[in-house]
Amino acid sequence: MRVRVRSLDLMLALSLALGLATAALAYIPPAKQVAGAVAKANRAAKRNQALTMEVSLQRGGTEEAFASGTLITDPSGKARLELQKDGRIERHLRAGARLEATRAGGARSGELRLPPLHLLQIVQSAKLQTALAALGAPGGAIELGYDDDLDAYVLGGRGATALWVDMESLSPVRIDLPAGITVRLGPLESFDGVLWPAWLSIHQGEAAPVRMLFRGVTATATSSEMFRRDWLFPDSQPRP
Asked: Which of 49, 94, 132, 145 could pair with 154 as two cysteines, CB 3.0-4.6 Å apart?
């Protein structure tokens, strides 16, 4: 009888421990709290400033770059990317959720080249949540996400526009966008004291993933003139 009682006691203790562990794993802090911690991490990483980056693009698993250029991103949500590809100039301009692109002076649509990288630069909880909402994320939504070996907080919730951050380091690891677009962010690397992903890869539909390598990242000064829509079009081209 004593053996049976001890066995029952042991089973009860194990069940209780398992229940407590499950409850702990299931706990998700409020979105506002996580967004605040992420914003502080952005500041600590010195990403809360306008940045100029030298980039190159690779397609699929190839190591040869098919385009290279310069990307400028600002915490306000404004960004621009100029690429040289096959002797032609391709330009992308972002203002929050609005994105336009031209190639050789003509309107271009199709594959994403300029993700909303300002999500990595915002240093206030409310502004980060507002920026996510402007991109289509449900207000105040947060879930747990698991991606290979990664455990993440998903600001915006799975299946929607979302920013994934590592649960321990709060490093940005992924951005989900409408139409099933996924932007995976590489490990953070120090560029003159600025912690920025070494690379990002864009997964969009059936197209081969495109990897953007960051060759250099430096703090810069910007002005509203740099992000005018006129910049998309060479001087010789009419503005639609």
From this structure: 145
- 63 by Cβ neighbours in 10 Å (0-12 / 13-18 / 19+) ranks as exposed
pLDDT of residue 102: 94
Q: What is the signed CA dihedral for 38, 205, 59, 61, rounded to 10 degrees?
A: 90
Per residue in 133-149, pLDDT tens? 999 999 899 999 998 88
Both tokens of 109, joined, read: 């649509």
Q: In Å, how far are 59, 96, 126, 180 from 200, measured between CA atoms?
A: 12, 19, 26, 16
Asked whether the CA dihedral 89, 190, 29, 16 is positive or negative, the reply is: positive
- Pair type for strands 106-107 and 150-155: unpaired
192 sits in which H/E element: none
35: enclosing H helix or E strand: helix 31-44
Tell me how far apart the terminal alpha carbons of the chain are, to the nearest angstrom: 88
Ordered domains of the chain (ranges, CATH): 28-232 (2.50.20)
From 78, 72, 82, select the one nearest 103 (Cα to Cα): 82
Beta bridge partners of 106: 103
**Angle between helical axes of 31-44 and 125-134 (0-180°, round to 10):** 110
| Cβ-Cβ contacts under 8 Å for 164 (sequence gap 6 or more) | 145, 147, 150, 152, 153, 154, 155, 172, 173, 174, 175, 176
The better pLDDT of the pair 139, 89 is held by: 89
| pLDDT recorded at residue 202 | 98
| Long-range pairs of 81-89 with CB within 8 A, sequence gap ≥ 24 | 81/55, 81/113, 81/114, 83/57, 83/113, 89/234
Q: How many CB atoms lie within 10 A of CB 163?
A: 29
